[in-house]
Amino acid sequence: MLSLDYIRSGGKLGLYQAFFSAPGVVVSLNQTRTGGSRPAAQDIPIELKLEELDLFKELQPVYASNANDRPFNCLEEIGHRNAEINAGFGGKYCYLVPTFTNQVNEAMTQCRMRVESSPLSGPNITDDLAKGAGGKYRYLQFNKDPNSHVKMTAAALFRHVGNAPTIKDAPGWDVMTSDINEERRGDWLYVVFKTREVFRVDKVPS
């Protein structure tokens, strides 16, 4: 037990705790020590398994004149139902095709659906998903927050009949947009995503 006789008026008492920090890892020991000089920092060898991921950069609609021209790399529907966005509404055959990146500052962190009365354009906004179908314009808008470690690593369409679903109705998926078919009759239709916490490594040790 430390005696208060060792701490004089105006004096200081050093209290030290072992602490380790690395990307994605923070460890502090419950034990502390007092007195003496501050322990010198030490290098601790650790082994990391690095994995290069294909992250979603954006989605864009690809239009076709008939179902036979469906792109081979378009998003699938999770229940193997129709993956054509405008099914039942006329207009162009519309499919969502992703592009990928392994740069975390270019990767999508959020995606939301926008239904507008007037055309939209700009960075991180798709072309109109309802092209040629009439009615309102339908867009996906992406956010690419470089400060967020949570990135989108997989995407698919989720088509549903019945009451409005939630993400719990799409097991294995983490987040989803609002309804692509908002304000027009037909199936509920969403883009669903899987997310993962990702850390950037600027230099890989040799």
Describe the structure in brief:
This protein is mainly beta. Helices cover 0% and strands 36% of the residues.
Features:
206 residues; mainly beta; three-stranded antiparallel beta sheet; two-stranded antiparallel sheet; 0% helix; elongated
List the SSEs and their pairings.
Blueprint: E1 15-22, E2 25-34, E3 55-64, E4 93-101, E5 110-116, E6 137-143, E7 150-160, E8 175-176, E9 188-197
Antiparallel strand pairs: 1-2, 3-4, 5-6, 7-9, 8-9
Structure description:
The chain has 206 residues and is mainly β. It is 0% helix and 36% strand. The chain is built from no helices and nine strands. It has a three-stranded antiparallel sheet, with no helix packed on it. It is elongated. The two termini are 48 Å apart.
Q: Tell me the β content.
A: 35-45%
Question: Roughly how many Å is the radius of gyration?
Answer: 26 Å
- Give me the count of strands: 9
Question: What is the multimeric organization of the chains shown?
Answer: single chain
Mean pLDDT: 85
The helix-and-strand class reads mainly beta
Helical stretch count?
0
Largest sheet: 3 strands, antiparallel
Uncertain segments of ≥5 residues (pLDDT<50)? 1-5
Which geometry do the CA atoms define?
A: elongated
Order of SSEs: EEEEEEEEE
